[in-house]
Amino acid sequence: MAELQALILTFLKAIGKYRWYAVGITWAVSVIGWTVVYRLPDAYQASARVYVDTQSILKPLLATMTTVPNVEQQVQFMRRTLISRPNVERVMRMVDLDIKNKSVQDHEQMVEELTSAIKVTGTERDDIYTISYSNPNPKLGKEIVQSLLTIFVEGSFGGKKQESDKAVQFIDEQIKTYEDKLAAGENALKEFKLQHMGVLPRQGSDYSSIITELTDKLNQAKLELAEAEQARNALKRQITGEEPAPVSAATAAEESINPELDSRIQALEKNLDQLRMQYTEEHPDIVSSKRLLQQLQARKKEEAKKRVRSNDPGANYSPMMQQMNVALSVEEARVASLRARVNEYASRLGTARAQSNAAPEVEAQLAQLNRDYAVNKENYTKLVERREAARLSGDLTSATDMMSFRVIDPPTAPTVPTGPHRPRLMSMVFGGALVAGLGVALLMSQVRPTFVTQNALRSATGLPILGSISMNWTDEQKVRRRRRLYAFSAAVALLFTAYGGVMAALLMKN
Questions:
Q1: CATH assignment at residue 164
Q2: 196: Cβ–Cβ under 8 A, 6 or more apart, which residues?
Q3: Lowest CB count within 10 Å: 118, 352, 382, 417, which one?
């Protein structure tokens, strides 16, 4: 600690030796600095505060219909890009600053000055943003802030609107392309169907189902034909087994067909027909039924031979015979109809089987055409929906209800300068002048060193010091020293008084 005090004392003595240089440098720096600060032009800060309301009722209403723009992100983007070069150059054109530029260098310098002077502050939490600009001309500062505010408001809507218009334009081009594809696909389908009209299956069916359906119908028709043929053959057998013979009227009245025998024969024939549909001719039931039927028919013939012929030609046929002939005619017609049906179904089945060989290739080509058309149609429908959504999104972006701007403090031309802060600058100049004066005095003491203490001499030479001789000042020298001390004190006091006067004048002016 003692060494530090000794060192400080040594520096002070060294500075004291060149104190007049220190005072002179301090005065010079202070006067020059104060003059420069005083002559600095006044800066007038124009500012505007705007509130951005991003909470719109349209957002939840249209969230499911279209892409709702992120208004918060738009505002933040505009805030960060407001002081960009294109915007600054636009501001210069809006306030006619570009006219004053005589060269490219002047233009670049003005752009840099504006970029550094414009400030945009605000918080996302409050959605309140402040745009400020300082300039010696208060009217110009107001115009620049107003221009920036206009760009800020317009840019928040215009960018997304332009993007939506470009998206709609691109989607329209794609829609036109898909319209051409759909038209070409429809023409291809029409030509293909006309070319393969006989091979293509009907709507909702294929050749396997058609063949199955025709096979079932053919089997059903064959079954009905077999039943009709059996019924017809049964009638023929009944008619063949009954031989008409002329008999007298009395005998004809007395002798008639045995109804019980006829009913038994008819029942047996029906039973035999049913058995034939289930079994072959060698089945025991069919063999026994045929044998019993032959016996009954032989018995019926025997009874018919015993009849006496009548002289009436109409008596040769019984009423039962006439009914059987009529029934036989009906069965013959039904057999012919069913045979025609069987032939038609057989022809259709053959045609379907012949066409089914070429059908897979035709169906594959048709499926490919339908699949391509369906894909193009689906993409076309999606593009139409996207186009409407993009248009709605663009309209929604440009809607003032989605994002409203409320100017809290409009830009005005300030009457009181906001800078420069002369008292602070004056104090900084005064402090710098003091440091400069002391620094110069210390530097001169190091350039022209002297020993002010015995310890300094002993340390420098390494020799022992036996003693020291004090300076014996005469009366005249003492008077001169006293005068120099008074002059130095007056100079220092005057310096601080000048600083105090300058500060008082500035404070009274403000």
A1: 3.30.1890
A2: 362, 366
A3: 382
Is residue 14, in this structure, part of any structural domain at all? yes
Classified as helix, coil or strand, 52 is: strand
For residue 411, whether the previous peptide bond is cis, meaning omega lies within 30 degrees of 0, is no
Distance CA 115, CA 88 (A): 7
What's CA 143's distance to the chain center, in Å? Answer: 40
The total number of structural domains that make up the chain:
2
Same domain, 49 and 146: yes
Q: Are both 123 and 82 inside the same structural domain?
A: yes
Q: How far apart are CA 334 and CA 340, in angstroms?
A: 10
DSSP label at residue 415: S
Distance CA 151, CA 226 (A): 97
Does the global pTM surpass 0.70? no
Q: Are residues 124 and 89 in the same domain?
A: yes
pLDDT at 236 over 70: yes
3-state secondary structure string across 293-360: HHHHHHHHHHHHHCCCCCCCHHHHCCHHHHHHHHHHHHHHHHHHHHHHHHHHHHHHHHHHHHHHHHHH
**Domain hosting residue 504, numbered range:** 2-40+420-462+476-508
- Of 260, 269, 267, the closest CA to residue 234 belongs to 269
Residues 36 and 96 in one domain: no
| DSSP, residue by residue, 433-455 | HHHHHHHHHHHHHHHS----SHH
Q: Radius of gyration over alpha carbons of the chain, in Å? A: 63
Share in percent of the chain as helix, strand, coil (round to 5):
75, 5, 20
* One domain for residues 29 and 57: no
Structural contact between residues 160 and 74, judged by C-beta atoms closer than 8 angstroms? yes
User: Is residue 108 domain-shared with residue 29, that is, in the same domain?
Assistant: no
Question: Residue 413 in contact with residue 141, Cβ under 8 Å?
Answer: yes
Q: What is the pLDDT of residues 8-31, one digit of tens each?
A: 666 667 677 788 888 899 999 999
CA nearest to 255, candidates 304, 220, 302, 312: 304
**Separation between Cα atoms, residue 428 and residue 425, nearest integer Å:** 5
Q: For residue 26, give both structure tokens.
A: 């301090």
- Quote the pLDDT of residue 248: 39
* pLDDT band at residue 242 using 50, 70 and 90 as cut-offs: very low
> Is the Cβ–Cβ distance between 226 and 198 less than 8 Å?
no
Strand 119-123 to 128-135 pairing: antiparallel
The interaxial angle of helices 319-398 and 138-195, nearest 10 deg, is 160
| 470 SS3 class | coil
Q: Which residue has the tokens 């005249």?
A: 476
Query: Does one domain contain both 73 and 85?
Result: yes
CA–CA separation, 403 and 58 (whole Å):
10
